[in-house]
Please model this.
Amino acid sequence: MWDFFGTVRHRHSVRKYQTDIAVEREKLHAILEMACAAPSAGDLQAYQIIVVSTPAERDGLRTAAGGQAFLSEAPICLVFCADPEASAKQYGERGRSLYAIQDATIAAAYAQLAVVAAGMGSTWVGAFDEAAVKELLGIPAHQRPVALLSIGYPAEMPEPTSRRHLSEIVQYR
Model:
């Protein structure tokens, strides 16, 4: 176990998973609890999380995501769906167009860090055919899939990638 800073520093996109080791139910439950602990606009939690574990559905996600093989390989894929209309009831158009998406992606980020804290790896996927994912999983029309998160035990750890220097990103005023 790492402290928060260590957890963040040890997060890498894992694209090779051990296919013979399942994600333990207790760990999955803890990851989902951390996702639901994420802040959201007005505490509405205007999102749904779909846990995809069947090989056929993971293969379907792989296809919808342009053939990214690790989606089939990872034992679990979490699909984060924004609920724009739930947010719009409270916040109008800004809730519909922004807050619901932020809520779902913040929950996904919390889940991703919880995966690392649980000793596993993940990869965030944003490049996918939304309509195909909706059809595959029977997602209601009022929800929008915004992120896929493959999770499992890494078969290999990728080399850390370089990050831009703070001076290139941060502005002090």
Remarks:
- The first strand starts at residue 47 and ends at 52.
